[in-house]
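QA checklist item 7 of 12: single-chain prediction sanity check.
[x] sequence parsed
[x] length recorded as 86
[x] structure emitted
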Amino acid sequence: MSDETGIANLKAHLSEIIARVKAGKTISIFERKTKVAILSPVNKKQKDEMNVRHASKSVHVIGPVTFKLDKKIDVLAMLREDRDSR
């Protein structure tokens, strides 16, 4: 693999690409011919600043979240409106 890849190849070979990044390589990600992202290793300073926060309760303890809407929402109309406003 080269130091650049397309999205389809990234999806197909994610584990191998992540292993290369962990080994110090920087990988440019392209969508068609446009560079859209760069995967690079985390440097020591970034590692030191990272905080992993674990869930305070298990999802099984919390249970499913349910709620009742007071009115019906036309999601399709909302999506069309959002798309048309762009």
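[x] summary fact logged: The beta strands are 4-6, 27-31, 34-39.
[ ] second reviewer sign-off
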